[in-house]
Each structure stands twice: as structure tokens, then as C-alpha cells.
Design a protein that fits this description.
mainly alpha; 2 domains; 82% helix; signal
């Protein structure tokens, strides 16, 4: 916590120095802009608040821990299998489901073809018997 406290104090001091130098260096040009914009105090306070907000956001990003982008999972924990084994199992299951679906589709297509052939056969018989 001592290191973090020192960094925070350094950030606050840097912020104060930055605000003082920016206020003194841009006072002549900013006064003309602020007079054009309307109320002088509102523009100045918004600009400083925006700068403070940006600095605090940067400090928050600096102190926060980075996101965990490791998609492989924890191999030390309860899952002894690696990622490759999981992928193989998923591929086998997918192939089994695809095979079952194809067999069902082929079976229904064969039934429909059989019905169509029987119907055609009966029509041909009827047409020859009428002659």
C-alpha cells in the first residue's frame, strides 16, 4: 500500500502543477474564447472538470488489474483434460449428431421416393388398363 500511496501523491502533485501551468499559459487566448461562449466561470470549470476526469480515468486504468484473456482455462484445477481433448470430444459428438441426422434424412427421402414410385406404378397400370 506504501507504493500505491506514493504514486497517488505523485499523481495529485502532477495534476496540481498541470492545472496551474495550463491556467497561466492559456489565460489570454482562453479569455477571448470564454467571452464568446457566454459565462466565463462555467466554461472554465467544465474544462478543468474534463481534464480531472481524464486524469482520474487514466489513474484508474493504471491501478486496475488487466483482464484475464487466458481462454485455455486452469489445468491445475479439477479438469485434468486439456483444451485439445475438449475440442476432440465436441467434434466427435457433433459428428455423431450429424450422422444421425443424415441417416434420418436418407430414411425419409427413401420413404418418399418409394411412395412416389408406387403411385407412379399404379397410375401407369390404370392408364394401360383403360386402353
Amino acid at each position: 500500500m506504501g507504493k500505491n500511496r506514493g504514486v497517488v501523491v505523485l499523481m495529485i502533485l502532477t495534476l496540481c502543477v498541470f492545472l496551474i501551468t495550463s491556467a497561466s499559459s492559456s489565460s489570454s487566448s482562453s479569455l477571448e474564447e470564454e467571452e464568446k461562449a457566454g459565462e466565463k466561470g462555467v466554461c472554465v470549470s467544465r474544462r478543468y472538470l474534463d481534464m480531472l476526469k481524464g486524469l482520474f480515468n487514466q489513474a484508474n486504468l493504471y491501478f486496475s488489474s488487466p483482464p484475464n484473456l487466458d481462454f485455455r482455462g486452469d489445468l491445475k484445477g479439477g479438469d485434468p483434460k486439456g483444451g485439445g481433448e475438449k475440442v476432440k470430444e465436441a467434434a466427435v459428438k457433433s459428428m455423431e449428431k450429424s450422422k444421425a441426422t443424415m441417416e434420418g434424412s436418407a430414411r425419409s427421402a427413401a420413404e418418399m421416393t418409394g411412395k412416389t414410385i408406387r403411385n407412379t406404378k399404379e397410375r401407369v397400370k390404370k392408364s394401360f388398363s383403360e386402353l
